[in-house]
Amino acid sequence: MSEVEAIGIDIGGTVIKGVSVNAEGEVIEQVRAESIENIEVLVHRVGRLIEKLGNGCERVGIASPGLADRRNTCIRWMRGRLAGIEGLDWGNVLRGEVKVLNDAHAATLAESWVGAAARYEHVVMLTLGTGVGGGVVSDGKLMQGVNGRAGHLGHICMDVDGEKDIVGTRGSLEDLVGNHTVKMRTGYESTEALVKAAEGGEIEAKKYWGWSLEVLACGVVSFINLFDPEVVVIGGGIAKAGEGMLFEPLRERVQEMEWYVNESGVPIVAAKLGDLAGAVGAARFAMMNEKSSVMRY
């Protein structure tokens, strides 16, 4: 069996996922546990998962929603179900060195390491689900920014007359295409239901889904102009809509607006690592030297 190089833990609102990986990024073992709001119990569960994955391994990374502090020791800003982890120094409570980062940032690192963007140095990733997350790798380095906000692509303004989102952005990409607003926007219970109805030929559903694709395409074009990536990776639950309903029509819309410098546009591809991306990315982050892996400006 390959030697465990690092352990990655991805703490979500409902599930905690953990992996051990070797130096090449291959998953040696994976474990899961139910997430919980009680912080004392949560810390205990995470500790037990780490023990199962490789007791004695000194390289541990933890990914979760929220903004990581500048030293990547804790989540310094978090709202919602896991608000209790805000300010929790994981190295102290687990009695070891632990590197902490945002979950979408972790997924971006994973996809750029051993996933859909493995051969690229300039990557933009979007995670489409309940909300819209994201991350940016530039010159092989993860962009985190001064306060950890870099790469939170769902919070760009797409409608100056729109309502404010959770962080105060008017008409954000997250509120315009995220699953958490789909019933209010369309009347359908979920994005999955909307896509299924559109695929079945329902006129209203096709209209709503087409509009969502147009908004998303405008966002993707903006990210291409901002970061000049070699590839755009899209993951998350909404990405399960697949080639015919998401990727092909999205590429067509982006091609109509993209600023062409080369003969071909920026590829838009599906993420490969599924729901283990956050854990794999956390493990990768634990393996990396900060000066060579992170852009803090």
Structure description:
The structure is a single chain. With 297 residues, this protein is α/β, with parallel strands linked by helices. It folds into 2 domains: 6-106 and 275-295, ATPase, nucleotide binding domain (Nucleotidyltransferase, domain 5, 2-Layer Sandwich); 118-271, 2-Layer Sandwich (Nucleotidyltransferase, domain 5). It has helices spanning 39-54, 90-94, 103-114, 173-177, 182-186, 191-199, 203-227, 242-257, 277-287, 290-293, and strands at residues 6-11, 15-21, 27-34, 60-64, 67-68, 75-77, 98-102, 123-128, 132-138, 141-143, 231-235, 268-270, 294-295. It has a 6-stranded mixed sheet, with helices on both faces. The longest helix is centred in the C-terminal third of the chain and has 25 residues, at 203-227. The model has no long low-confidence stretch (mean pLDDT 95).
